[in-house]
Specification:
Helix 3 (about 75-80) crosses helix 11 (about 315-350) and helix 7 (about 185-200) runs parallel beside helix 11 (about 315-350). The longest helix has about 35 residues, at about 315-350. The chain is about 35% helix and about 15% strand. The chain has a 10-stranded mixed sheet with strand order 7-6-5-4-8-1-9-10-2-11, sandwiched between helices. Strands 13-14-15-16 form a 4-stranded antiparallel sheet, with helices on one face. It contains 16 helices and 16 strands.
Length: about 550
């Protein structure tokens, strides 16, 4: 039975005597026939399929539908052109594993327990896949999840261990480790298509979490895209050489392209002579060694001349920083091109099999990413480039093509949204809200939020980003950095969208500051966050690393 088929509704018949009695009793004001309750198959036919596509570290600026001109992503753009694009999609905690835990549970990090990449995730807690599974959905998770343990809520899982590898990756299929030959993005897509075509029960609605590793560090491109962007010189953001004036915490980062981006690990300068001895050289050597001889030959044919040229130039200072930026952008965007190819294959499969009309397709990332803004790569900070994430969605039955959503939504909202569409009850402890009403005026909706909350916990840790939390409204953002510092920042996003000027101590913003402090207290209370919870999470984090306060 096709998923988009609507079964005819049965009617119960009345004999003439009963009909007459019935009509007299109700004075002829009701119909002479009534509907029976829907059968399981009728209900299933009305429940939409869900394909939830998530990439890793995909900056919204690196999707051509957002109009920044860096690259061309025609297949991801199809989701926007056939459905909706969200201009204010955000995360609650900009780091891989916690973001995914929020997505699954619909709860902030301090509530689901996964506050950082170190502490374990408790799969025994409720997640939206479990709820859909109980309601008759066939469920699968394929690709990157970065949460320890066997995924719960899925009839089938085939996931990367940890961060995964770009070449000849290992996967864990229903708990069993398997190595696949090939490029990870292509392998993940093939596994997703295989499940759709061969492994699911085709008379049930389905949920597919199709999650790519790319474009996560170290941005190792697929062979067919080695030369893509070779003829393009990327222009650095205006604040590439940021001096961090008035922002002392930002100045303490360890995520600068100029000083912290490893020329071997990040930029592939693995010279055969071993002369470029960098901090993470051996880590990249391990990834290179995963390639077979044919893959290495193709890789070397492209990268060896670049390595030789780099060594001969002996770049320093700003010239080196700009060279690094160019190399970074090329490889980062190349990995996205393979992701876009995979999205196209999945969309084509849905169309070719008559599944498009009754399938919700969402494309997003676990967070944003810096593409040279403030001189950075990576994420973590509450500043816009990592706080904001791409979000595109289509569902022909309800969402009009070309819809634009400007309200603030978060990864907190995926769980209740999917449950809403499936007609499954939303648990009281879910903290997100269904955004179904934002894309469909006819759907039941309510007044939308006017503020969102953010937390980041992983310090001390990689990239040296201090712990912080904050509140964002449509125009203003208040951030508090704490633990071994006590620093406040306030930004006017209308006049300062790049967040270069901290106006926290500016007398002109004294009333705004007062109002934002009140909003922060209110929103922390709303979501049940507190200093006591922060202290508990900090103690657990340090304990996991063998440290004490």
């Amino acid at each position: 039975m096709k998923n988009n088929q609507i079964l005819k509704k049965r009617t119960r018949k009345f004999n003439i005597v009963n009909l007459c009695i019935f009509c007299i009793v109700v004075l002829f004001v009701t119909s002479c026939s009534t509907q029976t309750p829907k059968t399981v198959h009728e209900q299933a036919a009305e429940q939409p399929n869900i394909v939830f596509i998530m990439s890793d570290d995909h900056a919204y600026k690196a999707i051509s539908a957002y109009g920044h001109g860096l690259n061309d992503t025609p297949n991801i753009d199809r989701i926007a052109s056939e459905g909706a694009i969200f201009n204010k999609g955000f995360v609650t905690n900009s780091i891989c594993a916690p973001s995914r835990a929020v997505m699954l549970t619909g709860k902030h990090s301090h509530m689901n327990g996964k506050v950082d990449n170190i502490l374990p995730f408790n799969w025994d807690q409720e997640n939206f896949a479990k709820a859909l599974q109980r309601s008759g959905y066939q469920t699968a998770m394929i690709g990157k999840i970065h949460l320890n343990g066997l995924p719960q809520g899925f009839d089938y899982s085939n996931v990367l261990p940890g961060q995964g590898s770009y070449y000849n990756p290992n996967f864990i299929e229903n708990g069993k480790k398997i190595k696949y030959d090939g490029y990870v993005t292509t392998v993940t897509t093939d596994l997703a298509l295989d499940w759709l075509d061969n492994k699911r029960e085709k008379d049930k609605p389905f949920l597919l979490l199709y999650h790519q590793k790319a474009p996560h560090r170290t941005w190792m491109p697929e062979e067919k895209y080695f030369t893509l962007f070779d003829d393009i010189e990327f222009t650095p953001p205006k604040n590439f050489f940021d001096d961090y004036k008035g922002r002392p915490v930002a100045a303490q980062h360890e995520m600068g392209i100029d000083k912290h981006m490893d020329v071997v690990y990040d930029l592939k300068m693995l010279d055969k002579e071993g002369e470029l001895k960098t901090k993470y050289r051996n880590a990249f050597q391990g990834q290179y060694n995963r390639m077979d001889d044919k893959q290495k030959a193709a890789w070397d044919a492209y990268y060896d001349p670049i390595i030789s040229d780099f060594k001969a130039k002996g770049l320093k200072g700003k010239e080196l920083a700009l060279w690094k930026f160019q190399r970074y952008m090329e490889d980062y965007l190349r990995t996205i091109q393979s992701v876009d190819d995979g999205v196209g294959e999945v969309l084509d499969y849905l169309e070719e099999n008559g599944l498009t009309e009754n399938t919700i397709v969402v494309y997003t990332s676990d967070q944003g990413f810096y593409l040279g803004e403030h001189g950075w790569f990576d994420k973590r900070f509450m500043y816009e480039e990592s706080f904001r994430t791409p979000l595109l969605m289509k569902y022909p039955k309800e969402i009009k093509a070309g819809t634009v959503v400007n309200e603030m939504v978060q990864n907190l909202d995926f769980a209740p949204t999917f449950l809403d569409y499936a007609g499954v009850s939303i648990a009281d402890d879910i903290q997100g809200e269904s955004f179904r009403g934002l894309v469909n005026a006819k759907a039941k909706g309510s007044e939308w939020r006017d503020a969102i909350y953010y937390t980041y916990y992983e310090f001390p840790g990689e990239h040296h980003v201090k712990r912080h939390y904050g509140v964002r409204t449509d125009r203003y953002k208040l951030i508090h950095f704490y633990y071994d510092v006590d620093v406040w920042e306030l930004y006017d996003l209308e006049s300062d969208p790049s967040e270069m000027t901290n106006v926290y101590t500016d007398p002109l913003y004294s009333k705004i500051k007062e109002d934002m402090h009140k909003r922060l207290v209110e929103i922390r209370k709303k979501y049940g966050d507190s200093k006591e919870l922060n202290d508990e999470n900090l103690d657990n984090f340090l304990k996991a690393k063998g440290l004490e306060r």
